[in-house]
Write a structure and sequence with these properties.
Length: about 300
């Protein structure tokens, strides 16, 4: 049985740092450098490191371990001109821990180790806001499964390519907090589809069909919710701020469906939250199990 990268499920960390790379060398050389970075990070107490690969790079490294529907991120275009842009890169490294100093040191060391095979294309320093809340004040990850069920939700099942790994969606969203905060509380709650205090889903009398909850909570043909595991965090300062959205899943299809519904593809109902937050990046990564990543270190 393959084992997921443990940093995916290490909850409670306050500081996060995402690095995206474009590779300059061949796949096997990249994997060796990644293994070296992982080993170095292991020596630093309290910092978790998770690695994901873009479709083309992972296909070169492990051609028999690519899920059938996995590929590069393509723009998601809604019927009214709304677009979720594609900014796909080859490699993603996510570091998180208790404090920004240790996370920064490991992030810098990881970038140095990988510099022989890749260049940093984008980075996103992030932080946990209050009690796992978005900068809007609303709780982030309300729909997350309990920890004891998260592995089932976030990892590819046994018998499938890259079993034990996770499909990862990485997006950066910039909030317009001034516009959002200017709304009356009742309207802000309708944007999300749940209450600010207690994060209780609105009842049918108050829920609107384009609320965030209405658009991203999806079900299969049997009425069972198709869950994902969210590990998002806030970023930015006074001038620009928002959310680095990280969602992990056992397959890509449910995440693609969520994105389509947010953009209003199919029925024209665009997620009301996108009136106050705009995506500036989008990429798919595959976070392989530790056995494929480092030979079972």
């Amino acid at each position: 049985m393959a084992h997921a990268q443990p940093g995916i499920f290490a909850l409670g960390t306050r500081s996060h740092h995402h690095l995206e790379f474009d590779v300059t060398r061949r796949g096997p050389e990249v994997l060796a450098a990644v293994a070296e970075a992982c080993e170095a990070a292991d020596a630093v107490a309290g910092v978790n490191l998770v690695v994901g690969f873009g479709a083309r790079l992972w296909s070169e490294i492990a051609p028999g371990q690519v899920p059938g529907d996995f590929g590069d991120f393509e723009p998601v275009e809604g019927p009214d001109g709304f677009v979720m842009p594609a900014t796909q890169h080859d490699l993603w490294v996510w570091l998180h821990g208790a404090g920004p100093d240790a996370v920064f040191d490991v992030a810098r060391a990881s970038a140095t180790t990988l510099s022989a095979v890749a260049t940093v294309a984008a980075e996103h320093p992030c932080f946990a806001y209050l009690s796992s809340q978005d900068l809007t004040g609303f709780e982030d990850g309300t729909e997350n499964p309990p920890v004891h069920e998260a592995v089932r939700v976030a990892t590819i099942p046994d018998g499938e390519p890259c079993a034990g790994g996770s499909v990862v969606l990485l997006q950066r969203w910039v909030h317009d907090l001034d516009r959002f905060d200017a709304l009356p509380l009742e309207e802000r709650e309708r944007v999300f589809g749940r209450t600010l205090q207690g994060s209780v889903e609105l009842d049918e009398a108050h829920q609107v069909p384009d609320s965030h909850v209405s658009r991203v909570v999806i079900e299969d043909a049997n009425g069972e919710e198709l869950e994902v595991f969210r590990r998002s965090s806030a970023f930015g300062g006074v001038i620009e701020h928002g959310l680095v959205f990280v969602a992990l899943s056992r397959d890509r299809a449910r995440l693609r469906t969520m994105l389509d519904r947010m953009a209003g593809r199919g029925d024209g109902l665009r997620d009301r939250l996108t009136r106050f937050s705009r995506p500036t990046s989008g990429a798919w990564y595959l976070a392989p199990p530790v056995e494929l990543l480092t030979g079972g270190r």
